[in-house]
Design brief:
Strand content: under 5%
Structural class: mainly alpha
Low-confidence stretches: none
Radius of gyration: 23 Å
Number of strands: 0
Shape: rod-shaped
Oligomer: single chain
Largest sheet: none
Distance between the termini: 47 Å
Number of helices: 2
């Protein structure tokens, strides 16, 4: 009986790890999504600035381009 109990404990621990792994994967993809939103936001800001002839948006707006969403 001890072996069976040990086995079910191991299985429980294994599935806990798998759950943790998928939580990490989900978190990773959320970060990737934010990263691409930041890139899109940054490129959108840059193209708007180029369209108006200003190459330094920081000087023009007085705020850094990194005003897009934080990565984490």
């Amino acid at each position: 009986m001890g072996n069976l109990k040990g086995y079910s404990g191991s299985a429980k621990s294994y599935f806990g790890n798998v759950k943790g792994y998928f939580r990490n994967v989900e978190c990773y993809f959320r970060n990737v999504k934010y990263y691409f939103e930041n890139v899109k936001c940054y490129l959108g800001n840059r193209s708007r600035d180029w369209a108006t002839g200003s190459r330094t948006p920081e000087k023009r707006y007085g705020i850094p381009v990194s005003r897009c969403k934080a990565l984490f």
